TrEMBL record:
GO terms for molecular function: peroxiredoxin activity. The gene is pcaC_3. It holds the Pfam family CMD. This is 4-carboxymuconolactone decarboxylase. Residues 22-103 form the Carboxymuconolactone decarboxylase-like domain. It comes from the Bacteria. Transmembrane segments: none annotated.
Amino acid sequence: MTTTLDTAIHASDRLKIYKAAPELLDAMMNLSAASAKDVEPELGELIKIRASQINRCGFCLNMHLVDARKHGVSEQKLDVLAAWEEAGDIFTERERAALALTEAITHVSHGVPDDVYDRAAAVFTERELAQVIAMAVTINAWNRINVTVHQHVPRR
């Protein structure tokens, strides 16, 4: 049986991935910047937080909740983001379309249903849609890296 102490000890033994391969950090940062060019920052943070909730990435959740608040995302949206489909009109149609697409991309083994894709395509330009897709893919990559290496949430 693994204890919390065992997990903490083993977590400190995990690879410091960006120290071992700094070019990976550069590539991820470039992909993050490219995917964010035409996506409004508030929407981008909602995408990143929702994927990070699903993937249980505490490091990314912490970072993007702080960033979302800096960009003016309301506390109410942040409070109900995990249940956005049940939140009524708190989220705009663009936000709902992006969140649905983000969830489908995050759970990609189920595929991305046509209705989810079509909903997003109806409210975003082709360039915006490309960047929303890339942003969801990118945060999923960050989440998977950080969860794998047990990237710790810094204390504030």
